[in-house]
Amino acid sequence: MPEMPEVHALVAFLAERTVGHAISRATITSFSALKTFDPPIDALDGATITGVTRHGKFIDIETDAAHLVFHLARAGWLRWFDAVPATAIKPGRSPIALRVRLDDGSGFDLTEAGSKKSLAVYVVRDPHEVPGIARLGPDALADDFTEAEFAEVLRGRRTQIKGLLRDQSIIAGIGNAYSDEILHVAKLSPFAIAATMPPETVAHLYDAMRTTLTDAAAIASGKPPAELKDAKRANLRVHARSGQPCPVCGDTVRDVNFHDSSLQYCPTCQTGGKVLADRILSRLLK
């Protein structure tokens, strides 16, 4: 799943190549992906792109007619073409959900792998008409999201910190991968309760969040979409590295599996050597 650093890089990539160009045609080929009907998708045809921005993990392409907003979800991605293929796409027979062709022949596809379809496309007059954008919390890297405001977000929340960092209505932009990375840098258990953290731990977590995301954004910066996934994977410390040695202490990275996701952590760095119970296995043994 692309998270804020990769989405930030995609926004910069698209802005450099699309602003000032007109959309020749926007074609939906996965009708379940389109979540709006007014304005219609063909309102974008002939519209000039005036800007590309990010709202959390949403990408917003602004035109002089409407906003094209999309969320790549778990298995979605953007494929750029200097010359969009001329072949027609058959709805329902391709991983392509949306094709956008620009006036110079370039453009992009939004694709989604797997059978569980979550990629979402919106055509709206205002990006805040998108429900997911309307309920976003403060952006994790926003200049005005200070340590004091971060502490206030955590105050009184008897929630495990892993889930809190992933909750877009609380803090925008962080997903499963970077929440694992942030907690490893902060040396915190993913099951630590936010409300019980002393001020020095909150300060350390805030610094870990900003540093981890800033470094990841710097790594992603300037890379084309085709290289972003590999760049992300190559620089992860614990996420998706179960069974491998921790790069800090050498202990084995462990995981905890849930019904639809998993998390990774280092027992020595984060839990005082304690191996956390696998949630799926624990339920099976009851």
Automatic annotation (TrEMBL):
Protein's UniProt keywords contain Cell division: no
Annotated Formamidopyrimidine-DNA glycosylase catalytic domain residues: 2-119
Matches recorded under SMART domains: Fapy_DNA_glyco (SM00898), H2TH (SM01232)
Taxonomic superkingdom: Bacteria
A family per Pfam: zf-FPG_IleRS
FPG-type domain location: 237-271
Catalytic activity: Hydrolysis of DNA containing ring-opened 7-methylguanine residues, releasing 2,6-diamino-4-hydroxy-5-(N-methyl)formamidopyrimidine
PANTHER family from the UniProt entry: FORMAMIDOPYRIMIDINE-DNA GLYCOSYLASE (PTHR22993:SF9)
Name recorded for this polypeptide: Fpg/Nei family DNA glycosylase
Organism: Orlajensenia leifsoniae
Source organism phylogeny: Bacteria, Bacillati, Actinomycetota, Actinomycetes, Micrococcales
